[in-house]
Design a protein that fits this description.
Order of helices and strands: HEEEHEHEEEHEHEEEEEH
Largest sheet: 11 strands, mixed
Structural class: alpha+beta
Strand content: 25-35%
Radius of gyration: 36 Å
Distance between the termini: 175 Å
Number of strands: 13
Length: 330
C-alpha cells in the first residue's frame, strides 16, 4: 500500500510575506508649545537645496515644564495661617496638598521622602512655632537650594473681602520690582519665586489665558506679595485693542503677606549657608525687648517714689506759726 503524501499548510511565498501594520501611528512627543513631530523641519530653519547640501537633522526636543509644588504645613498651626496656606493652594493649579508634618529637626528627611513619593520637585512648607510665628520654607528637591522666610502682615481672602475676582486655575502674570536685579541673593529669590508661582503651560488644571497678575516688590528688605485681577470692558462697543492698556484696570483679589528672608541654604532643608540676613531679628528677641520695656516702666515708678521721699526729707517745710491760732476758739 502506498504511503500518503504530507500536505503543506501554506506555500512558501505566503509564509514569508509580512502582514500590513494596522496599528495607529505613534503619538508625537508633547512639548511646551504643543505636539512636536520629529520628522518635520523647524519653522525657522532655512530650506536645504536639493543639490550640494544635505538635509538638516531633526530639531532637538524642546523643554517641557513639569513643575509640581507640594504645599503642606506643620502641626498645631493656627487657623489664620491655615487659611493663608489654602489661599496659596487655590492660586497654584500645579500644587499638591498633603497632610501635616511634625516640626522637628528631622522634618527635612521626612519632607524629602514625601516629595519623592508625590513626584514633586518643589515644596512650600508653612512652619508655625509657639502658635504665633509663621515661617515659610521654599525648597527645591532633592538638590536645593532652599530659602527660609519669616511671614509677616498676613491677610487672607476672607479677612479682606475685596471686590476682585478671577477664574480659578488661570495662568498668572508675574511682575517684579527693579531692585530684584541689584544683588545676587535677590536674583536667586526672584528665580525661585518664578519657578514656584508660574503655572506650567498646558497643565491639565490650568486655563489657557491670563486674567490676573502676581506682584512681588522689595520694600525695606522685605518681599511684599499682592494679587490683582486684570479687568477689561467686555461690551461689544468698547473692545480693547491690542496694546490698549489705558482701558485696563487692576482690582486686588488677595491674599496679602510679607516675606522676610532669613537664610538661603545650598541643599534641601539645610546644607551650607549661602546667604544670611544681617538685619534679621527673631520674634523672640522682639518680645523680650517689649517685656523689658514694660518691666522698665514699673522700675521707673518705684524710683520716682523713692526720689520724692528723699526730696521731702531733704527739703522739710518750716512750721507755720499761725497754724494753731484758731484751735482754742469754738
Amino acid at each position: 500500500m502506498a504511503k500518503k503524501r504530507k500536505r503543506t499548510d501554506a506555500p512558501a511565498e505566503a509564509a514569508g510575506a509580512e502582514k500590513p501594520d494596522d496599528s495607529a501611528p505613534a503619538r508625537p512627543e508633547r512639548t511646551l508649545f504643543g505636539f512636536k513631530d520629529p520628522s518635520a523641519p523647524a519653522p525657522d530653519a532655512e530650506p536645504a537645496s536639493a543639490v550640494g547640501r544635505a538635509a538638516a537633522p531633526p530639531a532637538a526636543a524642546q523643554f517641557r515644564n513639569k513643575e509640581k509644588v507640594l504645599v503642606t504645613c506643620s502641626r498645631r498651626i493656627t487657623y489664620r495661617y491655615r487659611h493663608l496656606m489654602q489661599d496659596v493652594v487655590s492660586l497654584l493649579p500645579h500644587a499638591k496638598k498633603d497632610s501635616k508634618v511634625e516640626s522637628k529637626q528631622s522634618k527635612g528627611n521626612a519632607l524629602n521622602e514625601l516629595l519623592e513619593l508625590r513626584s514633586c520637585s518643589s515644596c512650600l512648607f508653612f512652619e508655625c512655632r509657639k502658635q504665633k510665628d509663621l515661617y515659610l520654607w521654599m525648597v527645591k528637591s532633592p538638590g536645593g537650594p532652599s530659602i527660609k522666610f519669616l511671614v509677616n502682615a498676613v491677610h487672607t481672602m476672607e479677612e479682606l473681602k475685596l471686590t476682585g475676582n478671577h477664574l480659578k486655575g488661570s495662568r498668572p502674570l508675574l511682575t517684579f520690582s527693579t531692585n530684584f536685579d541689584e544683588q545676587p541673593h535677590w536674583k536667586l529669590v526672584k528665580e525661585m519665586l518664578t519657578q514656584f508661582f508660574a503655572t506650567p503651560k498646558d497643565h491639565r488644571k490650568a486655563k489657557p489665558f491670563h486674567d490676573h497678575v502676581f506682584v512681588f516688590s522689595i520694600v525695606d528688605g522685605h518681599v511684599w506679595f499682592r494679587n490683582y485681577q486684570i479687568s477689561v470692558p467686555h461690551n461689544e462697543i468698547d473692545k480693547v485693542d491690542k496694546g490698549g492698556l489705558d482701558k485696563m484696570t487692576l482690582i486686588e483679589v488677595g491674599p496679602r503677606f510679607c516675606l522676610n528672608p532669613i537664610k538661603i541654604f545650598g541643599g534641601s532643608f539645610g546644607g551650607p549657608t549661602l546667604y544670611e540676613n544681617p538685619y534679621y531679628i527673631s520674634p523672640n528677641q522682639i518680645r523680650a525687648l517689649e517685656k523689658r520695656k514694660k518691666a522698665g516702666k514699673y522700675a521707673k515708678k518705684v524710683k520716682a517714689k523713692v526720689r520724692r521721699k528723699m526730696h521731702e526729707m531733704e527739703n522739710a517745710l518750716e512750721p507755720d506759726e499761725f497754724a494753731d491760732m484758731w484751735k482754742g476758739e469754738d
